[in-house]
From TrEMBL:
InterPro entries: C2_dom (IPR000008), C2_domain_sf (IPR035892), EF-hand-dom_pair (IPR011992), EF_Hand_1_Ca_BS (IPR018247), EF_hand_dom (IPR002048), PH-like_dom_sf (IPR011993), PH_domain (IPR001849), PI-PLC_fam (IPR001192)
Tagged with keyword Metal-binding: yes
Record field: catalytic activity: a 1,2-diacyl-sn-glycero-3-phospho-(1D-myo-inositol) + H2O = 1D-myo-inositol 1-phosphate + a 1,2-diacyl-sn-glycerol + H(+); a 1,2-diacyl-sn-glycero-3-phospho-(1D-myo-inositol-4,5-bisphosphate) + H2O = 1D-myo-inositol 1,4,5-trisphosphate + a 1,2-diacyl-sn-glycerol + H(+)
Record-annotated PH domain positions: 18-126
Domain PI-PLC Y-box: 516-632
Membrane topology recorded in Swiss-Prot or TrEMBL: Peripheral membrane protein
Enzyme class: hydrolase
Gene Ontology MF, one: phosphatidylinositol-4,5-bisphosphate phospholipase C activity
Name of the protein in question: Phosphoinositide phospholipase C
A GO biological-process term: intracellular signal transduction
PROSITE patterns reported for this sequence: C2, EF_HAND_1, EF_HAND_2, PH_DOMAIN, PIPLC_X_DOMAIN, PIPLC_Y_DOMAIN
Biased composition (Acidic residues): 453-468
A Pfam match: PI-PLC-X
């Protein structure tokens, strides 16, 4: 049971894996001064990396291969670059984990040892990615066996089984557990081995909820004939009638276990049926809409754009760590607009950090190198580099030089055809390009009609989104700010000064270098006066930025006008400077106005980033989502506060029956603790659609809780709605604990019986935790 390498790799003779199983002493590097030897080895399950200090003692740590997203060779992290003079690149590598977990930087004693681990880890990651559903189930069973087999003798007695049940979030009475144990103990040895444990696990995980659906459509109660399956797909899953027979045959071929006679009969057993429902095709998120399916030839401002705020920060905005890893992680999540705060640095090199705070500093040059290397790994569509520029003219020239020399052809330096355009090019036309957003001397017309004299410069506020300077005056009356002012607190890039009980931000004025100005083409930052002024005077390539509170004010006072403005131009909204903890605002409010660039702190987990991941989880995760047509035409009127007034208004009814949950993760580290789960379904959209409902909570069962609770919602603007499923552990005495969540666009929901594969607070998968639901969407007449 525990020797699963053959299953994973296909051949135990892999020298790299054998070397990893034997183990290797390597240096774990955290900084130039923190370099410690650790003994690393691959466990025999080929799924777990075990490591410990060389010093005496039994303390050790482990992590799963499934937690590792990729392996970088050589000096491809800030930490390893800092010790490049000490260790050659062929001995160095970095394990990059999923989610927000920090990297693991390692140095082997030789290049050969480093290669063994690099190739071996890549092989294991590839094997995991290529696993079928039944193989994943085998691996899951293997992992539980290993956790429960406390004395590592390859078998489990009843005492170990009882511990296992608690670990699996099951509070089963001892009599029932013992009956299952005795039934599985075919050899009557008082212990479970290999196939006996598999049998025990399958009895434990028997899905009565799925069996009920299966038997409702099965003619003989034993299998689904081709006709039975067609009827289920047509009537329940609402698959297209024309292709339903072909689909049924494909599902049998794909999911029915090959060692059953049922497949030969062109039929599906309960095992195959469950495998289909647990697959991507049985998921609530329509697979077709997870791939690139939208028209990418519309003007750039017709799309919502996945956007990051203070991208260089890994933590909060006061003392947080600045790192190029922030950019790499944002790009990995499909982000297409990143931010850089530039200040004059030593030795003539511009630096990036959150000004007037204790955040650490990185070189602007290193950020640009990260852009070159990582901007287009996940998505080939354009990246907008939003600059908050505090540099003097000399270091602005250095910034321009780095952008030109490092990015080369990737940096967009002119309009695509060299002519004066009347609208934005499309994401399709801008593939592989980086667009600089910032101040510009003059406009596109002047740039294309003839050169601007080098001595010309723009005097004014170089950065129109000097974030703390944009804190609304009404915010300055808050108690917290008054307290901060008294102690001379510095927030963001602005100092607050006590003056007659009022605090006023002070902005500095700087000059703009022509070289940096020339790097700005389609995204010229301008000060916003009013929607009327913008409608009459603004050029399409001029972009304004608002703090969240200013954007809310515009939404309250002129919602429809805000939407029309965003049909013509790009707008960026970013968090208030008061959010020193790097918390986020609700992005849905801003998407409701058609705002394209809603900048969030990607480093901060929570409902706001769940919504961002949910919206941009569609369309191939390319970072661009086409706005609804009523938000793309300036002649159309849409007020998010009054969606019923829009042309083509058609409300929908959403009915969700929450049936059951499967293998929910433990949230309390106590071995005896078992969760009391309940499910909350939230609708995020226009104000009229904002709603949430909950199921009952189930006592002491995180393994296979059953609800059959029905929740109903009315959706007035389905094109803008997101649906978030949240599982929490009920606690009547204190705050409920988060268990898992999943968020998706309403427009991407598959109807019928569907599984929802839950994600952690970090947005990473937590297999095999899931919910089983039935979804029906109908028109409201």
């Amino acid at each position: 049971m525990v020797h699963r390498c053959r299953h994973l790799d296909g051949r135990l003779g892999d020298d790299n894996l054998q070397s990893m199983i034997v183990g290797t002493v390597m240096r774990k590097i955290k900084s130039r001064t923190w370099k410690k030897q650790r003994y690393f080895k691959l466990q025999e399950d080929c799924m777990t990396i075990w490591y410990k200090s060389k010093k005496a003692g039994n303390a050790h740590s482990t992590f799963s291969v499934s937690d590792v997203e990729t392996v970088r060779e050589g000096h491809q992290s800030e930490v390893l670059l800092s010790i490049a003079d000490e260790f050659p690149p062929d001995r160095c590598f970095t394990l990059v984990f999923r989610g927000r977990r920090g990297n693991l930087d390692l140095v082997a004693d030789s290049a050969d040892e480093a290669q063994s681990w690099i190739k071996g880890m890549k092989k294991l990651i590839e094997n995991l990615e290529n696993m079928g559903e039944s193989e994943k189930l085998d691996q899951w069973i293997c992992e539980w066996f290993k956790k429960a087999d406390k004395n590592n003798d390859g078998r489990m007695n009843f005492r170990e089984i009882r511990v296992l049940l608690k670990m699996m979030n099951v509070d089963m009475n001892e009599h029932h557990a013992h009956r299952l144990f005795m039934t599985a103990d075919k050899s009557q040895t008082g212990t479970l081995e290999d196939d006996e444990f598999v049998l025990f696990y399958k009895m434990l995980t028997q899905r009565e909820d799925v069996l009920r659906v299966f038997q409702d459509y099965s003619g003989d109660g034993q299998k689904l004939s081709l006709r039975d399956l067609e009827e289920f797909l047509r009537d329940e899953q609402l698959e297209e009638v024309d292709g339903v027979q072909q689909l049924a045959m494909e599902l049998i071929e794909r999911y029915e276990p090959s060692d059953t006679g049922t497949k030969m009969l062109k039929a599906m057993s309960i095992d195959g049926f469950l495998m289909y429902l647990a697959s991507a095709e049985g998921s609530i998120f329509h697979p077709r809409q997870q791939s690139l399916y939208q028209d990418m030839t519309q003007p750039l401002n017709h799309y919502f754009i996945s956007s990051s705020h203070n991208t260089y920060l890994m933590e909060d905005q006061l003392r947080g760590h600045s790192s190029v890893e922030g950019y790499i992680r944002a790009f990995k999540r499909g982000c297409r607009c990143v931010e850089v705060d530039c200040w004059d640095g030593p030795n003539g090199e511009p630096i990036v950090y959150h000004g007037h705070t204790f955040t650490s500093k990185i070189l602007f040059k290193d950020v640009v190198i990260a852009l070159r290397n990582y901007a287009f790994k996940v998505s080939e569509y354009p990246v907008i580099l939003s600059t908050e520029n505090h540099c003097g003219v000399e270091q602005q020239r250095v910034m321009a030089q780095h952008l030109n020399t490092i990015l080369g052809d990737k940096l967009l330096k002119s309009t695509l055809d060299g002519k004066i355009p009347v609208s934005f090019p499309s994401p399709e036309e801008l593939k592989g390009k980086i667009l600089l957003k910032g101040k510009k001397i003059g406009g596109l017309e002047e740039s294309l009609n003839g050169p601007v004299e080098p001595e010309d410069s723009l005097t004014g506020e170089v950065s129109d989104e000097d974030e703390a300077a944009d804190i609304d005056e009404d915010s300055l009356h808050s108690n917290s700010l008054r307290r901060m002012a008294k102690v001379g607190y510095c927030c963001g890039s602005i100092k607050f000064i006590q003056f007659n009980s009022r605090s006023f931000p002070q902005k500095s004025k700087q000059r703009l270098s022509k070289e940096l100005s020339d790097c700005v083409v389609y995204c010229k930052s301008v000060h916003f006066s009013s929607f009327k002024h913008s409608r009459i005077h603004s050029k399409f390539y001029e972009i304004s930025s608002f703090t969240e509170s200013k954007a809310r004010k515009h939404l309250r006072e002129a919602g429809a006008e805000f939407v029309r403005h965003n049909a013509r131009q790009l707008t960026r909204v970013y968090p208030s400077g008061l959010r020193t903890d790097s918390s986020n605002f609700n992005p849905q409010e801003m998407w409701n106005t058609g705002t394209q660039i809603v900048a969030l702190n990607f480093q901060t987990a929570g409902v706001e980033m769940d919504l961002n991941d949910g919206l941009f989880g569609q369309n191939g995760r390319c970072g661009y989502v086409l706005k609804p047509d009523f938000m793309r035409m300036s002649e159309r009127s849409f007020d998010p506060e009054v969606p019923i007034n829009r042309e083509g208004y058609r409300p929908l009814s959403l009915c969700i029956q929450v049936i059951s949950g499967q293998q929910l993760p433990k949230v309390n580290i106590k071995e005896s603790s078992v969760v009391d789960p309940f499910v909350r379904v939230e609708i995020h959209g226009v104000p009229l659609d904002q709603a949430k409902q909950e199921t009952r909570y189930i006592d002491n069962n995180g393994f296979n809780p059953v609800w059959y609770d029905t929740l109903r919602f009315t959706i007035h603007a389905p094109e803008l709605a997101l649906v978030r499923f949240v599982v929490e552990d009920y606690d009547k005495a204190s705050r409920n604990d988060f268990v898992g969540q999943y968020t998706l666009p309403f427009s991407c929901i598959q109807q019928g019986y569907r599984h929802i594969h839950l994600l952690s607070k970090d947005g990473t998968s937590i297999p095999p935790a899931s919910l089983f639901v039935h979804v029906r969407i109908t028109n409201l007449v």
